[in-house]
Write a structure and sequence with these properties.
The protein is mainly beta. It is 5% helix and 44% strand. The chain has helices spanning 2-16, 372-380; strands at residues 21-26, 30-35, 40-45, 59-65, 83-85, 91-95, 110-115, 122-127, 133-138, 143-147, 162-167, 174-179, 183-188, 193-197, 212-217, 224-229, 233-238, 243-247, 262-267, 274-280, 283-288, 293-297, 312-317, 324-329, 333-338, 343-347, 362-368, 386-387, 394-407, 413-417, 421-425, 432-440, 445-452. The strands form 8 sheets. Strands 28, 29, 30, 31, 32 and 33 form a 6-stranded antiparallel sheet that branches. A hairpin with a 4-residue loop joins β9 (133-138) and β10 (143-147). The relative contact order is 0.11.
Length: 453
């Protein structure tokens, strides 16, 4: 009985503290997430202040808050641990600055978030797996870059590094960017695809291996919808949902069944119905519209999550679950969110970048709990009462609820209630432990454990 009670406490605490993250970004040897309350959290390598926690050196193997601000915009697969936007449109950076990639006009490392200039009209920011150069788009559609520029990855017409944002050309119709190791892809609002920088593996998609130091259009098609970059490989999705791949393929990351590089886009016909794509440096991750996760490429640290270290040169499904919602790849590790809001990680972990409290490599997904301050914060926001609890039939809320989700003991969503309610019928449920997550009509958020007997 004591063991059962311990397991109950462990799993209920884990569940209640697992649903606090809204967006994720894995970088070189670290991870960065924005919590539901808008706060920023990081973990992993901090040798140059990459975590932004006000100190330099060491590692952190659990989520650690970066500053105390709660106005960070969501991060994504295409951003990194060192650069982020706030809700007011200002751009902030911290960490390693050996190539001026922090954008402050110097090459001095910074161990806490510092605003870049005074502009507050930044729309989006993008950085590559090596964290050495950055590209950003302003609200007016102009394109800017700074940092390392050995191969012309800044798109400025030369190979000189920049320590502060410099405008790329004069076009005002840039829609989105993806940054690789030392190259970049760009989409314009007219659906055309552009690329520049290193092309040693054909990753620019021109059918050759010559570098470009300025944005150059790839083909004549104007039906590109989204773009993604690994270190030396690229992925593009067209408006019809078709997926195209090119560049380095030494580990089968293009998913074409071989390890031959491609220097022009080739359709990946085995993949369709994709809602999300992410990369690590030599791997690709696909989330299908049914929530299933498929992976291919390099697997030397278990970054494919398949429970082994074998590369895959065709997309292979990770497990049988269909609840994956978002994903982001670093060098050799991965972060992913499920539809129930839980955070998972796997792969390389020498710097604690998985956030599971260890430095052990994981070849399969492991759950990452929320810090206690976040896990308890929601419950502190409200004095909402749910009664009777335990119950054998129904429960009543002391305040009207407008959004409510019911989960079982394993974290599986049982039911959602979208209309305003003050009571729910549980008579058809089996006896056991359940969890309620929702928001009241007054805007208060809550997580509550419920026992049906």
């Amino acid at each position: 009985m004591a063991n059962k009670y311990f397991l109950f406490l462990f799993f209920s605490a884990q569940f209640l503290t697992a649903q606090c993250w809204q967006s994720i970004s894995a970088s070189r040897y670290g991870s960065c997430v924005v919590a539901d309350n808008g706060s920023l959290w990081s973990w992993g390598n901090n040798a140059s202040g990459e975590l932004g926690i006000g100190v330099t050196g060491g590692i952190r193997n659990i989520p650690t808050q970066t500053g105390s601000d709660q106005d960070w915009k969501p991060v994504s697969e295409k951003t990194t641990i060192q650069t982020a936007l706030k809700n007011d449109g200002s751009l902030w950076s911290w960490g390693l600055n050996n190539s001026g990639q922090l954008g402050h006009g110097n090459t001095t490392n910074i161990n806490s978030p510092t605003m870049i200039g005074t502009a507050s009209d930044w729309k989006s920011v993008y950085a590559g797996k090596n964290q050495e150069f950055v590209i950003a788009i302003k609200n007016n559609g102009t394109l800017w870059s700074w940092g390392r520029n050995d191969y012309g990855g800044l798109g400025l017409g030369d190979t000189a590094l920049r320590t502060a944002p410099a405008q790329i050309g004069s076009d005002t119709n840039w829609e989105t960017i993806a940054v690789g190791g030392y190259f970049a892809l760009g989409l314009k609002t007219d659906g055309t695809l552009w690329s520049w920088g290193d092309n040693g593996s054909g990753q620019l998609g021109f059918g050759d291996f010559a570098n470009r130091v300025s944005p150059t259009q790839v083909g004549t098609a104007n039906d590109w919808d989204s773009i993604y970059c690994g270190y030396n490989h690229a992925i593009g999705v067209k408006n019809d949902g078709s997926i195209w791949v090119w560049g380095y393929n030494g580990y089968g990351q293009l998913g074409l069944g071989d390890t031959v590089n491609r220097n022009a886009p080739v359709q990946l016909t085995s993949m369709n119905g994709i809602q999300k794509i992410a990369t690590s440096i030599d791997s690709i991750y696909f989330i299908k519209t049914d929530g299933a996760l498929w992976v291919c490429g390099r697997n030397n640290y278990g970054q494919l999550g398949l429970g082994d270290y074998s590369d895959r040169n065709i997309p292979t499904q990770l497990g049988t679950e269909n609840s994956w919602q978002d994903i982001s790849g670093g060098f050799y590790h991965v972060l992913a969110l499920k539809s129930n809001g839980t955070l998972w990680s796997w792969g390389h972990n020498n710097y604690g970048q998985l956030g599971d409290g260890t430095t052990i490599i994981r070849t399969s997904p492991v759950a990452i709990n929320c810090p206690a301050i976040l896990g308890t914060q929601e419950n502190k926001l409200t004095e909402l009462r749910i009664f009777p609890n335990p119950t054998n039939s129904s429960v009543t809320f002391s305040e009207e609820i407008k959004n409510l989700e019911l989960y079982d003991f394993t974290g599986k969503k049982i039911k959602s209630y979208s209309s305003t309610i003050s009571k729910i019928d549980l008579s058809q449920l089996e006896n056991g432990i359940y969890f309620l997550k929702g928001k009241t009509t007054s805007g208060l958020i809550f997580n509550q454990k419920l026992i049906k007997n």
